[in-house]
Amino acid sequence: MHYFLRLHALSQLFDEQIQRWGGSLVSLGLRLFIGWQFFKAGLIKVSDWSVTLSLFSDEYTVPVLPPEVAAVMGAGGELFFPVLLALGLFSRPAALGLLAVNVMAVISYPQLFQFECPAAINDHFYWGISLLVLVAFGPGKFSLDEFFKAKRT
């Protein structure tokens, strides 16, 4: 009987730690995964700028902005916001910035909806939902936002 009481106490301790840290671990994982997806796309864009400008001029139909401005803003957002997200610094604004980049990508490349394999548009959908989760629940305990918040109090 004593063994079962110890096991129950250990189980309760584990449950408390999961409740305390689990959400923060999930948030960290989301921040790193989503940030990496966008950062890779930004690296590809800046690796061959002439191709990027060509894509923004010929393939993507970004509303309102000239293609050159849209290319700079898109690549810049894909390189800047993921770093903030990974560090957990200004996490919610960074997630909103990436959400805007994601939405603009879907709007300006309607061919995503025409591919036989829906993986491309599904990726954008999942990234958008994940970014909304980060906006709603924040970066968690493993972030510079949380570190600076603790320093203020």
From TrEMBL:
<keyword id="KW-0472">Membrane</keyword>
<feature type="transmembrane region" description="Helical">
    <location>
        <begin position="21"/>
        <end position="39"/>
    </location>
</feature>
<keyword id="KW-0812">Transmembrane</keyword>
<dbReference type="InterPro" id="IPR051907">
    <property type="entry name" value="DoxX-like_oxidoreductase"/>
</dbReference>
<dbReference type="InterPro" id="IPR032808">
    <property type="entry name" value="DoxX"/>
</dbReference>
<dbReference type="Pfam" id="PF07681">
    <property type="entry name" value="DoxX"/>
</dbReference>
<keyword id="KW-1133">Transmembrane helix</keyword>
<keyword id="KW-1003">Cell membrane</keyword>
<feature type="transmembrane region" description="Helical">
    <location>
        <begin position="125"/>
        <end position="144"/>
    </location>
</feature>
<comment type="similarity">
    <text>Belongs to the DoxX family.</text>
</comment>
<feature type="transmembrane region" description="Helical">
    <location>
        <begin position="69"/>
        <end position="87"/>
    </location>
</feature>
<feature type="transmembrane region" description="Helical">
    <location>
        <begin position="94"/>
        <end position="113"/>
    </location>
</feature>
<protein>
    <submittedName>
        <fullName>DoxX family protein</fullName>
    </submittedName>
</protein>
<dbReference type="GO" id="GO:0005886">
    <property type="term" value="C:plasma membrane"/>
</dbReference>
